[in-house]
């Protein structure tokens, strides 16, 4: 189990749901998890206001509320020994600084209740060298429904082994969660090539068959989705009530600059389910 850093927005979310997801995901954790409580609040950064005793007292009360909320949230999870260490950030710049201290060989769990990720969380994901779990308020099924999305056609702008790595990670997680796993791939035919649609779809099916055979995954359930990748993945996850979508985090261009792929970026903008992004 990878060392884990968790980011939680202060005073947000259903505590029971947060606890339930962490219990499932970190049941086999062998090292304590680091929890960063994101308590950034603009009034706390306006020090010129602190000359007013009432405002200063409100800022102090806010800090006390945040710390009590976090300690109450993690107390049941720490009941069998210290598994979660808490730390707090009170301004935007601290988040990037704290994440820079995270172990490279770890994973990042980000609880985000907003439909679209705030820009500071996007930056944290883009800069991460580790797998990232983006979790929201949707409750998982029992057993959970996992979907793994691959794209073997984009070998030129992705690490060569990214799809195999993503599938292996999804299979390991599905086995640990006793979940149900389905592999999907999206095939998009531009309007100007519509007369070649059947041939294009046949080629995509053949490439997926070859991928599954190469990695001895023939028994894995899979579907070919037709349309724009971000749209078809979102629609599939909603229609099939998926709990977690596993996919690659990055694309790599000729300049070798680390960037999020366009499909991943769209899926982060409007999440149909929780995401597990593999670099």
Can you give a write-up of this model?
Belongs to the universal stress protein A family. The protein is of the alpha/beta class. It has helices at residues 15-25, 42-45, 53-74, 92-99, 119-127, 162-177, 197-214, 229-239, 262-269, and strands spanning 4-9, 33-38, 84-89, 107-111, 132-135, 145-149, 180-187, 222-226, 244-248, 250-252, 258-260, 274-278. The chain has a ten-stranded mixed β-sheet. Strands 10-11 form a two-stranded antiparallel sheet. Strand 4, helix 5 and strand 5 form a beta-alpha-beta unit. The protein is elongated, with a radius of gyration of 21 Å. The two termini are 17 Å apart. Mean pLDDT is 86; it is low at 252-260.
